[in-house]
Backbone:
C-alpha cells in the first residue's frame, strides 16, 4: 500500500452539482451525492452511490485489478439495449483508508458513457417535451428516430369520418 503524498496526490471532494451518466442516450445514473476523486495527473473520476445507479443494467465480472493507492477494484459489464460493454464500470469495495469514502461506490469509464453536470430545475423538467425525455429507437443508439420516419397513413379528415357506427359493414356487400 502506498500513501498519497505530494508526488502522487489524491483528493476526494463532493461534486458541487448533480451528475448524470448517460449510456447510449439512456440515463444509467443520476445523483447529487457524487464523490470526485482527483489523483495525480489523471482526469477526475466520479464515484456514485449504488442506490443512485441503475444496477440492473450492470453485471459483475471476474476481473480484479490492484491499485497501490486505492486497493483492489472489481468490475461490472454494462448490458443495455442489446449493447454489452465489458468491464466498463468499477468499484472499490474495501479500499485503503486514505480513500475509504469511495467504498462500495461505482465509477464509469468516460469512453463508454457521457456525463452531464448540473441539476435540472423543476421548471426545466416540466417544460421538457416528451421527445426530449423519451427516445424510442430500434437500434438502441439513443438517437430519436422521430425525424426519420414520415407518417405512413394520412391523418383522418373529420368531415370524411364515417358517422354510422352501428352498421360497420354498411355498403361493403357483406351481410
Residues:
Amino acid at each position: 500500500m502506498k500513501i498519497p503524498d505530494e508526488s502522487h496526490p489524491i483528493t476526494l471532494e463532493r461534486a458541487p452539482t448533480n451528475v448524470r451518466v448517460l449510456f447510449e442516450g439512456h440515463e444509467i445514473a443520476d445523483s447529487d451525492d457524487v464523490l470526485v476523486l482527483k489523483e495525480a495527473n489523471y482526469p477526475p473520476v466520479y464515484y456514485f452511490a449504488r442506490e443512485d445507479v441503475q444496477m440492473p443494467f450492470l453485471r459483475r465480472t471476474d476481473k480484479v485489478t490492484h491499485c497501490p493507492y486505492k486497493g483492489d477494484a472489481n468490475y461490472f459489464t454494462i448490458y443495455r439495449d442489446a449493447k454489452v460493454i465489458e468491464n466498463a464500470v468499477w468499484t472499490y469495495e474495501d479500499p485503503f483508508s486514505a480513500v475509504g469514502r469511495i467504498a462500495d461506490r461505482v465509477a464509469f469509464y468516460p469512453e463508454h458513457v457521457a456525463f452531464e453536470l448540473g441539476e435540472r430545475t423543476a421548471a426545466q423538467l416540466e417544460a421538457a417535451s416528451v421527445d426530449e425525455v423519451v427516445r424510442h429507437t430500434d437500434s438502441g443508439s439513443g438517437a430519436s428516430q422521430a425525424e426519420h420516419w414520415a407518417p405512413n397513413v394520412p391523418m383522418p379528415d373529420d368531415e370524411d369520418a364515417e358517422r354510422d357506427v352501428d352498421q360497420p359493414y354498411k355498403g361493403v356487400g357483406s351481410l
Observations:
- The first helix runs from residue 122 to 127.
- The beta strands are 10-14, 19-23, 26-31, 34-39, 45-49, 58-67, 71-80, 83-91, 105-108, 114-117.
- The chain is about 5% helix and 35% strand.
